[in-house]
Amino acid sequence: MPDRLDDDEVDRRLPDDWERDGDEIVRTYPFDDYLDGVTFATRVAEVADEEYHHPEITIRYDEIEVRLTSHEAGGITDADLRLAGLFDAER
């Protein structure tokens, strides 16, 4: 099981444009077109499945919200921060 990171480490390592929301990190990606957002959500889901670490993805008309946490660790881990970077690379 991965180790939960302490608050200071999460704050120090949190990628740009990501925010902390309790025991999760969250980012909202804006899109001009609904289908562009859906395509991005699909790419995020594929990366997550390859990494076997699955986010919560909310699809809205002009934005995609992604939330990451490690339930088994009770909070944010290295895996969450790593995936945040991989998702940003897909954008």
UniProtKB/TrEMBL annotation:
CDD domains, sorted: PCD_DCoH
TM region positions: none
Pfam families attached to this UniProt entry: Pterin_4a (PF01329)
Name the record gives this protein: Putative pterin-4-alpha-carbinolamine dehydratase
InterPro entries hit by this protein: PCD_sf, Pterin_deHydtase
Enzyme Commission number(s) of this protein: 4.2.1.96
Keyword Thylakoid: no
Keywords linked to the UniProt accession: Lyase
GO MF term list: 4-alpha-hydroxytetrahydrobiopterin dehydratase activity
Substrates-to-products reaction catalysed: (4aS,6R)-4a-hydroxy-L-erythro-5,6,7,8-tetrahydrobiopterin = (6R)-L-erythro-6,7-dihydrobiopterin + H2O
UniProt keyword DNA repair, yes or no: no
GO terms (BP aspect): tetrahydrobiopterin biosynthetic process
Assigned protein family: Belongs to the pterin-4-alpha-carbinolamine dehydratase family.
Organism of this sequence: Haloplanus rallus
